[in-house]
């Protein structure tokens, strides 16, 4: 399974955002990494700004370049505003929904739960993190995985009512994907229009 496994704090500092979650290093060193990180005065080009936004989206959702481009092309073919549709496709990924439901503390942990066959969709085990959910589908935890410490710890510390496009059922440890979220409901600080401009060149 292709995924980024390099240093996370370095990437967060480079992009200037806590894209992998709370980061003590980022709060202490809120400037780019490297020998001249704190003294760079060169103005970033328009292309550089657009590229940075694309990288932020890729690392936030844990998607590599080819997969991200495929999603962008799919968003272009879909009716609606391309940038918003792109974010909706990213939010509809199974690993992201597992994270949003609070079953896992991070998207990386959610991806691992999915690939290790601990997650079901409509009662069937699905081990593809990039699986795109359709409205009405139910994401749940496999019966024998409900007692896993990583899942119980995550569920104990999360609120499940914060996303209007998801419906959580505590009794069955499952959540219903009601619909693709509207742009204003997606909390990620990503300027999707810059990504569209980058790919349109």
Keywords:
alpha+beta, Structural Genomics Hypothetical 15.5 Kd Protein In mrcA-pckA Intergenic Region, Chain A, 201 residues, 9 helices, 2 domains, Ribosomal Protein S4 Delta 41, Chain A, domain 1
The run of helices and strands is HHHHHHHEEEHEEH
Helical content class: 40-55%
* Order of the strands making up the biggest sheet: 2-1-3-5-4
| Largest sheet data | 5 strands, antiparallel
CATH architecture of the largest domain: Roll
The fourth-level CATH homologous superfamily of the largest domain is: RNA-binding S4 domain
Structural class: alpha+beta
> Average pLDDT, to the nearest integer?
85
The number of distinct structural domains comes to: 2
Indicate the radius of gyration in whole angstroms: 18 Å
Protein name: Small ribosomal subunit protein uS4
InterPro entries: Ribosomal_uS4, Ribosomal_uS4_bac-type, Ribosomal_uS4_CS, Ribosomal_uS4_N, S4_RNA-bd, S4_RNA-bd_sf
Domain Small ribosomal subunit protein uS4 N-terminal: 3-91
Subunit structure: Part of the 30S ribosomal subunit. Contacts protein S5. The interaction surface between S4 and S5 is involved in control of translational fidelity.
Task: Kindly describe this structure.
- The protein is α+β, with helices and mostly antiparallel strands and 201 residues long.
- The protein has 2 domains: 6-87, Orthogonal Bundle (Ribosomal Protein S4 Delta 41, Chain A, domain 1); 93-181, RNA-binding S4 domain (Structural Genomics Hypothetical 15.5 Kd Protein In mrcA-pckA Intergenic Region, Chain A, Roll).
- It has 9 helices and 5 strands.
- It has helices at residues 8-15, 24-28, 46-61, 65-77, 82-91, 94-100, 107-115, 149-156, 192-199, and strands spanning 119-121, 124-125, 138-141, 166-169, 174-177.
- It has a 5-stranded antiparallel beta sheet with strand order 2-1-3-5-4.
- It is elongated, with a radius of gyration of 18 Å.
- The model has no long low-confidence stretch (mean pLDDT 85).
């Amino acid at each position: 399974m292709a995924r980024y496994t390099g240093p996370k704090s370095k990437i967060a500092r480079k992009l200037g955002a806590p894209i992998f979650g709370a980061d003590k290093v980022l709060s202490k060193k809120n400037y780019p990494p490297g020998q001249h990180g704190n003294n760079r005065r060169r103005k970033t080009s328009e292309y550089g700004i657009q590229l940075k936004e694309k990288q932020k989206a890729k690392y936030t959702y844990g998607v590599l370049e080819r997969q991200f481009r495929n999603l962008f092309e799919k968003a272009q073919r879909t009716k609606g505003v391309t940038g918003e549709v792109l974010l909706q496709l990213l939010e509809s990924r199974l690993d992201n929904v597992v994270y949003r439901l609070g079953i896992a503390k991070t998207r990386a942990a959610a991806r691992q739960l999915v690939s290790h066959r601990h997650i079901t969709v409509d009662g069937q085990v699905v081990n593809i993190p990039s699986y795109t959910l359709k409205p009405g589908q139910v994401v749940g935890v496999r019966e024998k995985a409900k007692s896993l410490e990583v899942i119980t710890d995550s569920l104990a510390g999360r609120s499940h009512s914060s996303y209007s496009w998801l419906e959580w059922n505590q009794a069955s440890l499952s959540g219903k994907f009601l619909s693709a979220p509207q742009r204003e409901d997606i909390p990620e600080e990503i300027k999707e229009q810059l990504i569209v401009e980058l790919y349109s060149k």
